Structure formats: structure tokens, C-alpha cells
Amino acid sequence: MHALLVEDDDRMAQALTTALAQRGHTVRRAARALDALRHVREAEFVLLDLGLPDLDGLELLRRLRTVCAAPLIVVTARCEERDIVQALRAGADDYVVKPFRMNELMARIDTVRRRTGALAPRPDAGPGPVRAGDVEVDLAGRTVTVAGTEVRLTRREFDVLAMLAARPEEVHSREEILDRIWGDAFLAASRSLDVHVAGIRAKTGRAELVRTVRGFGYRLGPR
């Protein structure tokens, strides 16, 4: 797999490049935001530092997500909850705080690639669109429309909504969703799932589209 490593620290970039190469990945390193934007379309997954010299990393993340759907993990020294929440809302698939254990990061890369690959649409994908009120979720086309107008969700937001829409009569536990989408049911104490559910509600303008089943999980809203 071909990785785009967006990292301005030479020592960190070298360590990550070596670790990725040992696992069979090819790596293009970009030390600046402009270089990342130039090469992101060729990437099969992205590692993104937020502390870049020419552009705030969160702004770069938003720009990358307009042109690239590849799995993306933020790897940064920023550990404030606000930064984590903003990155997840902007489309990051995972968030790793420096310093980190290299083996853990490699495992997270494998998990994100496996889960995002498993959720990618197949050429023969079905079934047809699922409707919930005036919201239509096209599972095959990975699009969402509200009252006929398309709404842009992040990849992870769509994955959560699609999981609920695929079995709209069922209640899905937090652990089930986290295991299916994030690949780790033990992330139940984190805010990642809550952040993405809030994003779905806000972007669609339909607070009841994702219904909370208190103490258990979520289900698709009234159909």
C-alpha cells in the first residue's frame, strides 16, 4: 500500500517511514501542506501531523477530505479534546497522540484500512436506498439526501448511518457499532461515536434520524 506521510519533523518522519517500509508499504513524505495536497490523490492511506509550518493541520485535513477518501489517521502532539473532536468531525478515521508506541500505530493503520475497505461499496452493492422520513440513504452510492438535497457527511459519519440504515428495525449497541466501524469495541468509553452521531444530526438537520436508546446504543429514526 502507498502511504502519504504528512510530517515536518525529520526524525519522526524517518522513524515512521522505516516502520511502514518494514511492513511492505511505500511512503511519500510531505513536510508542507502544499506538498500534501499535490500528492494526496495517489495515496492509499494518509498519516497527518497537525503541527505544520505553512497551514494549520485541521484546515489541511478539511481540504484533503474534499479531494481524497483514503483512510486518514491524525498523528500529532495535540491532545486537547477540542482538537480531537474537530479532527474527527473533519473526517479523520482515527487520532493518535504523540508520543505513541510504534506497534500500536501500525495496528491502528491495519484496523482502519481493514474497516474502511470492508465498508467500501461494491460494484454490485445493494439494496436500494433506505428512507427515514424525508431522508434518503443510498447505501450503494454512499450518498445522503434530505428533502431532495444532498448532504455531505464524512466517511465515518456515513459508515455509522449506513450501518443503522442497513438494518433499520434493529437497535445497535455502542459496542457493536464501535467494533464494526472502528474495529475496537473497547472504545466504548471514548467520545468518537458520540461526535459522529452529533455530526449526522447536525448536518442533516434531523435530530431524530439517529435515535438514542439510553444505556444501550442507537437505531435509525422513524421511517
Task: Describe the structure in your own words.
By secondary structure, this protein is α/β, with parallel strands linked by helices. The chain has 2 domains: 2-119, Rossmann fold (3-Layer(aba) Sandwich); 130-220, Arc Repressor Mutant, subunit A. 42% of the residues lie in helices and 21% in strands. It has 8 helices and 12 strands. It has helices spanning 10-22, 33-39, 57-67, 81-90, 102-119, 155-166, 174-182, 192-204; strands at 2-6, 26-30, 45-48, 72-76, 94-97, 130-132, 135-138, 143-146, 149-151, 172-173, 210-213, 217-220. A 5-stranded parallel β-sheet has the order 2-1-3-4-5, sandwiched between helices. Strand 3, helix 3 (57-67) and strand 4 form a beta-alpha-beta unit. The protein starts with a strand and ends with a strand. The relative contact order is 0.10.
Walk me through the topology.
Elements: E1 2-6, H1 10-22, E2 26-30, H2 33-39, E3 45-48, H3 57-67, E4 72-76, H4 81-90, E5 94-97, H5 102-119, E6 130-132, E7 135-138, E8 143-146, E9 149-151, H6 155-166, E10 172-173, H7 174-182, H8 192-204, E11 210-213, E12 217-220
Modified residues (4-aspartylphosphate): 49
Domain OmpR/PhoB-type: 127-222
GO molecular function: phosphorelay response regulator activity; transcription cis-regulatory region binding
